[in-house]
Amino acid sequence: MRKKEGGYQPSNQFLIAFEAKLFYVCGGLEVYEVKEFEAIGAGADFARAAMHLGHSARESVEVACKLSILCSEPITDLRFEI
């Protein structure tokens, strides 16, 4: 792949919910099941730290919006019943 793509490194990140489980996908090649919590995007480090301290997912995104110049409100959250 490196030879064909000229050094391109895929860097996309996704969180995918499937059959009551959450998976983290990075670069299209790395996949692991999320056991506790996860965040992606520009404010991911701030959001993960807030969740580690006991904040809800929404509160963690609010923290990321306050601390990262690359994140901003409005926040849209989706909830799924399993």
Please characterize this protein's 3D structure.
The protein has 82 residues and is α+β, with helices and mostly antiparallel strands. It folds into two domains: 1-35, no CATH class; 40-74, no CATH class. Helices cover 29% and strands 20% of the residues. The chain contains three helices and three strands; from the N terminus they run H-E-E-E-H-H. It has helices at 2-5, 44-52, 57-67, and strands at 13-18, 21-26, 30-33. Helix 2 crosses helix 3. The model has no long low-confidence stretch (mean pLDDT 88).
- Give a count of the beta strands, DSSP E runs of length 2 or more: 3
Q: Compute the number of structural domains.
A: 2
Order of strands in the sheet with most strands: 1-2-3
Q: What are the secondary-structure elements, in order, as H or E?
A: HEEEHH
Number of helices: 3
